[in-house]
Amino acid sequence: MKLNSYKFLYTACLTALLLGAVSCKEQLDVGNPNAPTYDANVNTETGLINLAQGAVYINGFGNAITSSGSTVDAWLGDSYFSLPWGYSALMADMVGADASNNQVTTIGQPDYIILDDGTKVTNPAPQVGIIRSYNSRAATGAGNNPLYYQWTNMYSLNNGCNQVLKLIDGIKFSGDAASRANTIKAWCYWWKGYAYASIGSMYYSGLINDNAATTNGSYVLHDAIINQSNTNFNLAATTLSAITSTTDYQAVLGALIPSTSQVGRGGVLTVDMWKRNINTMLARNILVNKLAPFVNGNPNATISKSSTTAMTTADWNSVLTLVTNGIQQSDLIFTGRSAANNSFISPGGGTVSSLAVGTNTSTTFRISERFIQNFNAGDKRLSSNFSMATTYKNNYIYTTRYSLLDASTVPAGVYGYGSRSAGVSELVIAGSYEENALMLAEANIRLGNVETGLAFVDAERTYQGAGVAAVAGTGLTQAKALTELTKERRVALFSRGLSYYDSRRWGWTYDISTGGGSYGNTVVTTAGTVNKNVTINYNFMDYWDVPADEAVLNPSTSGVATQNPNY
Predict the structure, then answer these.
(1) What whole-number distance in Å separates Cα of residue 392 and Cα of residue 399?
(2) pLDDT tens for residues 286-316?
(3) Quick check: pTM over 0.85?
(4) N or C, which end of the chain is more exposed by having fewer CB within 10 Å?
(5) Rg of the chain over CA atoms, in angstroms?
């Protein structure tokens, strides 16, 4: 089915979330036909399915409507996958930008760089200062508060799912009623797990709210938010186990997922496939929220000041157990594709990759030299997806010799990164085979099973059609194996919202004085000089402050800080 306009009548409380100018304690006017109450208007199975679909793809990912009537992610792009995920790609130095919109130029600028000849170039406006100075309600109104968007999207997603769960027991279902209801419940638990994972992985503190159209001031630390994500993912798995009618399950899930997302690797997952997707996400929650420093080629590096803790052997074993039962190569996953009309992502502005496709002198996002440096010699993904026909010149670090080609031109069998043509490029929304395989690789390498881990790297490269020589069986040390692993995660998982979390946990985004930093980088100057051994001190805030739109209007009553005290 397509996304239906019917279900987007629910505006204020569902999309204003916990933020704002309109309190969700003020119930919608029953007499207003443009703002119906849910209990009165969502009273059929079809209506509930429409609401559940819209809660995810419009409130969570598309242009959700805020209490002021504006759209959340309307900027140079138009979705959660272009702006919040854009910040991730910028801070991981996968792309650059020079537009003034939404602080995309400043959010990814490091504190300083040291060029090959020893020249130190310093940023006069460090990122932490920019984030703090623009974290205000006034800046949000002007489109200049980067902290606002991911929080808004994900709490909108969470609230929409809360609303569906509130209504579900009052709906009369056809067929096997229990299986149909449980399918929708599993859907809501899955996406609530996803929302809490996103909040807990990015913000220093957050709110646990499992009631529709309400809020509270009981902030908890990001670890507690991740625990709530895990609770919901596990609830989804338990609920899926209670489904007894495959026919009714498939019918409901097929109606929940838009038809444009049921092609390629997207589609109606079996119950077992969905459970494996859950395991991959549970493993991700552990991995991206702990430190596994690998700084300047040192597997034993440490970070002395951080908002989280280091991975332990027990953590690595937990990850390994989960991903061993995670997404398989043949499994369906949750995806998105653009369409010319009526889609939650547009062909030209819905994703980071679509905003990077084109000649580098004119695109919104520009491919970073630090992304390209991760490809091994002879990688078909590099030769098939990128052009060196033009050079974009910019002061500091954003000069690049590379442009991203449209995936429609990439040969069959080789992974294509992005497209501006409707329906061509596949957006991976949650977990994937590639991510799961590379978690298998990293866990094994960290646990001392280097050859086993490298075999997973090779398998994933083969899956994406890289065409490079195998690294397993070549006698690599753990440090060299981790170099292959980190390079491949950056190459394989581009534009999937993970790159900043990786740079953070590997220690690269932390201040050099605390043990962080990034070494051996390629930087091209505006004069055309190609530096190959540049030291970069990003010194980014590891977990963001709560956006002022929440913290000011809904101050903490729990004593937990809404501003990261480590910065």
Answers:
(1) 5
(2) 999 999 999 999 999 999 999 999 999 999 9
(3) yes
(4) N
(5) 23
